[in-house]
Amino acid sequence: MKKLINSPENVVHEALEGMVAAHADLIKVQFDPTFIMRADAPVKNKVAIISGGGSGHEPMHGGFVGRGMLDAACPGAVFTSPTPDQMQAATKAVDSGKGTLLIVKNYTGDVMNFELAADLVRADGGQVESVIIDDDVAVKDSTWTAGRRGVGATILAEKICGAAAEAGQSLAEVRDLCQKVNAQGRSMGMALTSCTVPHVGKPTFDLPEDEIEFGVGIHGEPGRTRMKLKPADEIVEMLMEPIISDLPYKSGDEVLLFVNGLGGTPQIELYIIYRKALEVAKRAGLKVTRNLVGSYITSLEMAGTSITLLKLDHQLTPLWDAPVLTSALRWGL
Amino acid sequence: MKKLINSPENVVHEALEGMVAAHADLIKVQFDPTFIMRADAPVKNKVAIISGGGSGHEPMHGGFVGRGMLDAACPGAVFTSPTPDQMQAATKAVDSGKGTLLIVKNYTGDVMNFELAADLVRADGGQVESVIIDDDVAVKDSTWTAGRRGVGATILAEKICGAAAEAGQSLAEVRDLCQKVNAQGRSMGMALTSCTVPHVGKPTFDLPEDEIEFGVGIHGEPGRTRMKLKPADEIVEMLMEPIISDLPYKSGDEVLLFVNGLGGTPQIELYIIYRKALEVAKRAGLKVTRNLVGSYITSLEMAGTSITLLKLDHQLTPLWDAPVLTSALRWGL
Amino acid sequence: METMTVNSLDSATVVRWMQHCAETYQQHKDELTALDAAIGDADHGANMARGFTAVQGKLDGLKDKDIGAIFKGVAMTLISTVGGASGPLYGTFFLQAASGANGKTSLTQEEVAADFAAGLKGLMSRGKAVVGEKTMVDALVPALDALKPVANDTLAAALDRAIAAARKGADSTVPMVAKKGRASYLGERSAGHMDPGCLSSVLLLEALKQALPSG
Amino acid sequence: METMTVNSLDSATVVRWMQHCAETYQQHKDELTALDAAIGDADHGANMARGFTAVQGKLDGLKDKDIGAIFKGVAMTLISTVGGASGPLYGTFFLQAASGANGKTSLTQEEVAADFAAGLKGLMSRGKAVVGEKTMVDALVPALDALKPVANDTLAAALDRAIAAARKGADSTVPMVAKKGRASYLGERSAGHMDPGCLSSVLLLEALKQALPSG
Ligand SMILES: Nc1ncnc2c1ncn2[C@@H]1O[C@H](COP(=O)(O)OP(=O)(O)O)[C@@H](O)[C@H]1O
Ligand SMILES: Nc1ncnc2c1ncn2[C@@H]1O[C@H](COP(=O)(O)OP(=O)(O)O)[C@@H](O)[C@H]1O
Ligand SMILES: [Mg+2]
Ligand SMILES: [Mg+2]
Ligand SMILES: [Mg+2]
Ligand SMILES: [Mg+2]
Q1: Residue with CA closest to ligand 1 atom 23
Q2: Under 8 Å between Cβ of D16 and D24
Q3: Is A5 part of the contact surface with chain B (CB cutoff 8 Å)?
Q4: What is the pLDDT of residues C14-70, one digit of tens each?
Q5: Least Cα separation, residue A46 to chain B (angstroms)
Q6: DSSP designation for B48
Q7: B221/D85 CB distance under 8 A
Q8: ipTM
Q9: Of the CATH numbers 3.40.50.10440, 3.40.50.300, 3.20.20.140, 3.30.1330.30, which one belongs to the domain with range A8-184?
Q10: Which among A26, A95, B53, B328 is placed 20 to 30 Å from D125, CA to CA?
Q11: Backbone angles phi, psi at C106, to 5 degrees
């Protein structure tokens, strides 16, 4: 395993120390239990928004803590959901009395840990709501399974709900908005290479030089199918098809097109992906009025990409455009 | 070779098409000759700043075109310097009459092509100055060699000179400022893996699972020495030592610490690097008052890092802080 | 001192159980992780080892308490250190098992069976999985069923039955297509591998067996 | 038609030369790139192939012009399509060679030698490299020296000498530590590899030899 680390045990802790040193103007970091919070939290008269999940997906979520987005992020061990005491402590630190929204990606572990956390917060008399993001069309949705994973739409929900909270919306409003973003967002991803979890020391899966994994998540879990490497344009067609054919897009819709890198994919390739994805979206009659291109929700050093489409409207577009000031996303400030 | 591309020949062209589609609010792209320019160029009463170099280093330079930074960027083929006609056409498009500064990284090809370009512009009656960036302490400096390479300080020079140009400084002032940034900046890099140039199809160098290349540039060229993999903290010590022991830092100096990823290195590792680099800088008595952590000057999907230190002062710090609005760097706007 | 035919569980044994857990999960870390790498995210070994190492660190403060208090301490430690799916699941198991053991420094075999059954019920209502969905439930349900006392039983004998049943349950997950947890994302590709949580459940029971006073 | 003993270079031959260049750089692309991968950045093959393919595309428009105009067209095309170090260097070579060939549709052997020498002078003042620094200069200097006419010479014979000298010069770069260009960043590690630009220079001369009317 080749990584710029000191020891697998210390990866998350040392990275957080570096992160807070680099962004002391934006964030504070607490350890044991561990969370990242806005430097100016709690923010008076504002619903607090907290997310969290395993580490190894940077900049998600810590890179989105700041004005106009998250009040706190709870990082677990690499690819392992955080524990309830983290979310409980974070809530205590950032809730200004207007309540807290927990944005949770749909993984069994995350869901259970956030559920326990919500119970703890409520037991302390706190007001808390949870929204579960499940936008990954690679996974068949069914009440008999763990359901779809939460991937790219998570970041869009964090941005949009952050703006709504900043604008003074109530906990119920921000929760409903989050559910709406989730309902209107769809994602699909693929990998060229595996990633190596630090404490494991070898790649999670072996992928021959000419094969790719299709329908992967963000934890190095194998995808739905393995296939031969294809030109980028074909890969984009295959990613876009299930996204567009799934609910809820129709010709004429305005959408946000988010092309994400999984960590080891250079930006030059992401723009090649974006170019084709835009073409496919246009062919389907969609108007791409907003976009995001970059490595924002990653899987360590995995090479690959995911595409997320979010249907926009008069409510969502201005919230997307609203100012944001975090280490990973900033505009308007 | 596993890349999200369609064909090696079309990588740069398609990426530029995607890039301009994603950032039409910030940039325009011209082909044949190829350059990226500010959407609002030429900007009246402002010295124009142009940089360029081989592609494969994204977001450098195209990602730095916009308000407060570059007026145009000229991308060559992957790892190949652009041709003079590109710089000539870019200058024609963005020079508002106040002259143009060419920021050139010290590679024989870049230097000669920019030299030819400056000749062409002058022949057309244009006013042009060039500054050559050579901040890489991995390379021994000598008048008998090609000299040091230009690496991380390039971006810092582009940002700082962009701010000065925006503030109305003259061509001579901006040129002198660029030389000052270059004189006060030092960099050093290392690689965990090689990269694969698209038209070559296989890694530029082979590196065993337990070895690293020390003192690499940004073109997949081998470094000065090959050695066994070490813990991140040791690697940082080895990168910082030659930077700090070289001119021009002394105890008490304020510096900007730039930890850069070479493309395939996840952000979690960059923060681990930053944490230790900060500690080493402090030990040397340096005050890190500004920083930049991210993959800004890359070598395709190469895993590795480079560290740049820039001595700040009352002139440079406010120029660094000045607003910038580009696809890769933005603050204050 | 315990009698030759052990049929109760006392605080000291519970403490030893937890110590054995810390050791066994450290020892089997790579094996658990390899199973999780095949159909999950390659962290189950690290999760269990981290959790029970933390439990071990708490034992000094717990060892003089009643079994309910020990179980509760174990539960809270697992919940706050494991993360992932297994943390809340095993945590809930011990939390629910604690209720019936409150104030008791020794549990009869019947009480052990009833207590663990309560733990399993909590675990299953937390995870919403039933037998056949390729989760730890496939090992735990038959195992705790086998733990129920029979004529002339000892706790050791019951545990042997439970371990055998857990192993059988674990093996039964190999051909299954996962319906719950992270492995379910793989669909048909999840078949052909044992569920990692089943192995950690087997190890949990084996550690208890090991902790029983020899006799 | 050319006479049996070729000792002049006409426009048609120059056009054929450029066509052969386009073919030879395409054919030897991987070889040039492999040399550049060892001590540079693995693009020399692609650079030369791209440049001379572009030159080939311009030949229709150049073929009826004088040699000066053809060389100038080649120079401008190389400068605007190759990039890297080799683009301005070979571009300058042809640009400077063009001056002496202005208005001429045929060059005597003496004129060829003088013209190429002017080209080399331009190349060397552009790159500031001298012999012994592990660049194309190590092939070109001895080659163009060997090109100078001797008694009873033909252009073909002179080119054979030049090619041999260029190959020898190229071989001489193997043990050298690079002082110029990208290879110089490697310091001592640049020793043990042939300079890629030397090989492209050898190929350039070989293509000219091939282009001569057979005789
Ligand atoms: N809904 C569930 N009910 C019961 N057990 C589950 C459930 N989901 C997952 N598991 C168990 O958890 C194990 C995985 O645990 P672990 O790897 O530690 O967490 P994660 O899946 O979050 O990475 C699986 O092997 C399975 O036995
Ligand atoms: N200063 C110089 N003078 C003469 N030739 C040079 C000089 N620098 C480099 N070269 C030649 O250029 C060749 C490399 O060309 P190429 O790979 O196309 O450009 P780059 O080095 O920019 O990638 C080297 O092999 C060498 O022969
Ligand atoms: Mg996990
Ligand atoms: Mg090059
Ligand atoms: Mg797991
Ligand atoms: Mg080269």
Answers
A1: C84
A2: no
A3: yes
A4: 999 999 999 999 999 999 999 999 999 899 999 999 999 999 999 999 999 999 999
A5: 24
A6: E
A7: no
A8: 0.93
A9: 3.40.50.10440
A10: B53
A11: -150, 140
